[in-house]
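Possible regression after last week's pipeline update?

I re-ran a chain I had predicted before the update to compare outputs. Posting the input and the new output here so someone can diff against the archived version. Not blocking, just want to make sure nothing changed silently.
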Amino acid sequence: MGLSSTTWFVIAVIALLLGAALLFFDRSRGGGGGAKDRRRWAAMRGWEYLDTDPVLPSRWRYGTIHQGGPGVARNLISGDVPTPDGPRQAYVFDHEQAGRLNSVLVAVQVQSQLPAAVELRLPSAPLPDDAGLDLLEPVGERYAFVSDAEAVRPLLTSRLADASDAVGDDVELLWAEESWVLATAPLDSSPERLQDLLADLAEVATALEQGQNARHRLDK
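New output (post-update):
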């Protein structure tokens, strides 16, 4: 007995829904084109690629780490960013928190330990919910929230303002802690955009280092 046209229609609809569900699940887990782009990026630049790293995000505590917990790094690539001051270690990964991908997190190493933490937030970004951070002053288009005003104020130079402004309006939050500068980008950021963001964060790191060096000279 052949199947009626109505039955075939129902089967087709079910198959379509199952396919859409599988595609959604794959994307939500960091699969699909994003993972392929990261693997290609890593291969082209001689960087390392990992599907998952459950430990790396716990290295940091401010920014989105504080807001949603360390979570898990998905589609992680790591390597060196070339700069005039020498190579800087860097990470790019999809940040999963509470089982959901929320943003792309980009981190670039600072060559010296920073005296305190600073978050630079656009006016459109939500206020930090960390009781250990206080609003200090505007830095270019962003507002600085810091863990130690006296220690951080000398680092908030005009070069830092220019560098943080150059990061772009699609990055509402960037922050620096210990020996890292970090930023959160939208999940649909292209590899080219993330490459530009790495360069921008390297400039932010350089500006912080120069401010710190000037602070040390004043302390002598």
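Follow-up from reviewer: compared with the archived run. The CA atoms of residues 6 and 12 lie 10 Å apart. Marking as no regression found.
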